[in-house]
Amino acid sequence: xxxxxxxxxxxxxxxxxxxxxxxxxxxxxxxxxxxxxxxxxxxxxxxxxxxxxxxxxxxxxxxxxxxxxxxxxxxxxxxxxxxxxxxxxxxxxxxxxxxxxxxxxxxxxxxxxxxxxxxxxxxxxxxxxxxxxxxxxxxxxxxxxxxxxxxxxxxxxxxxxxxxxxxxxxxxxxxxxxxxxxxxxxxxxxxxxxxxxxxxxxxxxxxxxxxxxxxxxxxxxxxxxxxxxxxxxxxxxxxxxxxxxx
Length: 246
Description:
- By secondary structure, the chain is an alpha/beta fold.
- It contains six helices and eleven strands.
- The strands form two sheets. It has a seven-stranded mixed β-sheet. The chain has a four-stranded antiparallel β-sheet with strand order 6-7-8-9, with no helix packed on it.
- Helix 1 (9-18) packs across helix 4 (72-79) and helix 5 crosses helix 6.
- It is globular.
- The mean pLDDT is 93.
């Protein structure tokens, strides 16, 4: 049993429209270039593939992709875009679900490892990635850096989006390393706001490196974005690549 919160049918049905900008060819270009280069001539496995925002266009690039997805509703949306023969999806959690065969690349995008709400499960996710990798294969994670520097004493929330259609802010449990993302999204038709929230376990890059070491993987590269900008103390996120020994 995973601690991940299960995405509902309603959430799945509106996911693509709410993430329209992040699904555009211009936005995804650097992501797909980065992943396709690492996959090379091998297969790629996407943990928490969701509606296929990344997996479907990566498959269209010619990379054989297999997905693991916990929510049957998210997988159903993906299936409207591409058939099972071209992009197989296994229903299950990313910490324990095993897919047949070996892969040159396993990847997790858009902060999704934080859906696992315990450190033990996040460690198991690294172990599961290593289990699927061929010798010399890579595990890639895209993850935000916890914005705790924006939390002065007495402040309980950090805004991450203030726009015409969406207000978003995070609240933090610093002891358990749990953040709750709160969303107020305005409906395009009647202008009413819909409230939603989701829980996540945040982790620092150094903590992830230790998880990788436990799984037998070594850090190969860490950059600030998919374009390869240097990762610095001011970076708000990182793309990290760990390699399985050849």
